[in-house]
Amino acid sequence: DAGVTQSPTHLIKTRGQQVTLRCSPKSGHDTVSWYQQALGQGPQFIFQYYEEEERQRGNFPDRFSGHQFPNYSSELNVNALWLGDSALYLCASSVPGQGVNTEAFFGQGTRLTVV
Amino acid sequence: GEDVEQSLFLSVREGDSSVINCTYTDSSSTYLYWYKQEPGAGLQLLTYIFSNMDMKQDQRLTVLLNKKDKHLSLRIADTQTGDSAIYFCAEMEAAGNKLTFGGGTRVLVKP
């Protein structure tokens, strides 16, 4: 089992550009969540996808959007990048059990640097 | 609203026990978690506890939950140099969709 895989591992973009990050969930997991972890801070919830729809969203602007595919993999898109978007972006997958995602497993993250 | 707080730093000698503390505010939390993050890496799930439990033990790890005071702790017995990392506590909201993390406690294990 490969666990949660994310690509790319590192990325450098210029202000104003757009970026797409990718995530493949752990085998058997159908729910994908995205988190942003700024340097020296804890992860912040961006949004969660289940059955190809955004189920819940954190306090992030519309520049952050996502998608989930029928194979449960997911993409995070960020438009009009700011310097402040520089962070480690983490993907987590889980299996909903009676409405509670008991265990969320995280990937290694994508380190995005905006210059 | 939800808020999770942790102390910033803990230094411990190899072989001693480490205790990392966390407080949270959301009384409707269903599960509480401990994650470990090593430099340049993602988050590794260490253990979790259901909110109606007081204690959970898993090998060298002991989680204590005081629901009245909304206080969670993680004890690591016989701390090793490989335990040096940042430890995050997190709470799962009642709807089961979102984790709220603390700012992390950096643990340094000295030989």
Find the structural class of chain B using helix and strand composition: mainly beta
> How far from one another are the termini of chain B?
41 Å
Count up the helices of chain B.
Answer: 0
Low-pLDDT sequence parts of chain B? none
Explain this structure:
The complex is a heterodimer of chains A (115) and B (111). By secondary structure, chain A is an all-beta fold. Helices cover 0% and strands 53% of the residues of chain A. In chain A, a hairpin with a 2-residue loop joins strand 10 (96-97) and strand 11 (100-101). The termini of chain A are far apart. The mean pLDDT of chain A is 92. Chain B is globular, with a radius of gyration of 13 Å. In chain B, the strands form two sheets. In chain B, strands 2, 4, 5, 9, 10 and 11 form a six-stranded mixed β-sheet that branches. Chain B has a five-stranded antiparallel β-sheet with strand order 1-3-8-7-6, with no helix packed on it. The model of chain B has no long low-confidence stretch (mean pLDDT 92). Chain B contains no helices and eleven strands. Chain B is mainly beta. In chain B, strand 7 and strand 8 form a beta hairpin. Chain B is 0% helix and 57% strand. Chain B has strands at residues 4-6, 9-13, 18-24, 31-37, 43-50, 55-58, 61-66, 71-76, 85-92, 99-101, 105-110. Classes of the chains: A mainly beta (115), B mainly beta (111). The A-B interface holds A 4, 6, 33, 35, 40-45, 48, 55-56, 58, 90, 92, 96, 99-109 and B 4, 30-31, 33, 35, 41-45, 48, 88, 90, 92, 95-104.
